[in-house]
Amino acid sequence: MAFWWALIVIAFALVICKFLLMLIPSNVPSIDVDASDVIDDGHPKESSFIYIPSRRQTDKVQCYEPATVKYLGYFPALKPDEVKEQVALVRKAQNVWAKSSFKQRRQFLRVLLKYIIEHQDLICKISSRDTGKTMVDASMGEIMTTCEKITWLLSEGERWLKPEYRSCGRSMLHKTAKVEFHPLGVVGAIVSWNYPFHNLFNPVLAAVFSGNGIVVKVSEHASWSGCFYVRILQSALAAVGAPENLVEVITGFAETGEALVSSVDKVIFVGSPGVGRMIMRKAADTLIPVTLELGGKDPFIVCEDVDVPHVAQVAVRAVLQSSGQNCAGAERFYVHENIYPAFVAAVVKIVKSVTAGPPQLGKYDMGAICLQDHSERLQNLINDALDKGAEIVGRGSVRFINEGAVDHYFPPTVIVNVNHQMKLMQEEAFGPIMPIMKFSSDEEAIKLANDSKYGLGCAVFSGSQRRARFIASQLHCGVAAINDFASNYMCQSLPFGGVKDSGFGRFAGVEGLRACCLVKSVVEDRWWPLVKTKIPKPIQYPVMENGFEFQQSLVEALYGLNVWDRLRALINVVKMLTDHNSSANSKRSD
């Protein structure tokens, strides 16, 4: 008994020591990032110039605030030769960085984390201005997810990139077998506009920590923020003595992205299925690996044994996260018929209290839609549903918007009497629309949820976790949340990605980190030089007459199912080897 008490005391002491060490400030330098062109006296610089968005692509990427249509500036649309020059610079820097220690890489992460925590307001304001999202949404989707990824890499990153020893099998007991993870070289990332901060940092953190360089093409709809955020990364790298040009951001349109794909050693893409297919075709020319995250049409299933008011709040948060400014969130809601009226009523009550407006002008529940003309597409989806029998039962409100920014707002909308013949239930909306459909059995809910060309994620709610787990296990998707929504992404140890038109490959987690590596299998002698691998005499060239008999006995000795058969075969192997040695000795005596 005393032994176990001693173990408990030691374990408790270790926990206390670890906690106390966390309280000791680490020696992490601060960095100074030039933000003079985006802020003025601590406040975001304002522009009185109203920009009229153009559908025509030029040699410039024009940037403006979706919420107010105020002009932000422009960046060059890089030509293929300019992209290749950038990749060449990064490749040169990567040759140096590949030799860096994990200690140096962790220090880079700590410098970043310190800056992010101390400059949350600036980071969120820039994201809000460039995409239209609220400060709360920016904090949740940009800051928290990125900080979580950094802390996971600090805690576990080195562990998963160190050589991993594997079993060597029966025939190679005298060997060691391991997997090594080496940098690929230069990673190319083409990222979407919905999370300009996190979508930039996410691939950069994995690529740089695994010893790579990286070039990121930021979206033409979020270039203003991306070109500022990269300064944070470059300043943090400089602070730890990393080579210049290890991380670069490029701006432009399709031509720029195509040139990037043809110049790098791996591509990570976040965007639409259509563009994803084009990237695959381009990547096939150089046979480089591709990771595709292509959005989704996530089902949100609500069983009859839930706390309706609670789940209604989660549901509204889930759909507003796909409001055209954040992620592709829950887009199809399936509610058990026994609670359908109560759930709809609870959701409508919440949605009617939601207001959308310019985030810079007040504290609104929802901001603007980033993409030009997207509200027209959302209305077309609703019109199609209404023509086929659907009904709008609740909408939020929009307030205090500029006349020129009207098209960048869409009120959150609850719509019922929907079915799968409607485009709204099949096409990715990426907007604040909540279509609710009833089901009568778990089997029907599973069938409805799987009736989609997408397969990114799902959320299942039930008073019985066992029931919710079973339903989720039957859904064909890459991410599942039980009695919650989108919590998976806050667990950065987990891989993230989907199936079908939602893409393939994974980022985040061990799988995402190692996807940035050349995975190399290595086998060597376990007791070198005492025990060396030699080819048995019967199968050396020229092969002896009993060579095949020897090989047969060797296979049975190693893999036979019966212990006596294996022992008999082993005796035959030894006998053939000794007979050969005796014959060889006799010849030498003669």
From TrEMBL:
The keyword S-adenosyl-L-methionine appears for this protein: no
Keywords, in A-Z order: Oxidoreductase
Positions of the Aldehyde dehydrogenase domain: 57-522
PANTHER family (UniProt xref): ALDEHYDE DEHYDROGENASE-RELATED (PTHR11699)
Similarity field: Belongs to the aldehyde dehydrogenase family.
PROSITE patterns hit by this protein: ALDEHYDE_DEHYDR_CYS (PS00070), ALDEHYDE_DEHYDR_GLU (PS00687)
Listed name of the protein: Aldehyde dehydrogenase domain-containing protein
Keyword set includes Oxidoreductase: yes
Pfam family, one: Aldedh
Active site (catalytic residues): E293
GO molecular function (one): oxidoreductase activity, acting on the aldehyde or oxo group of donors, NAD or NADP as acceptor
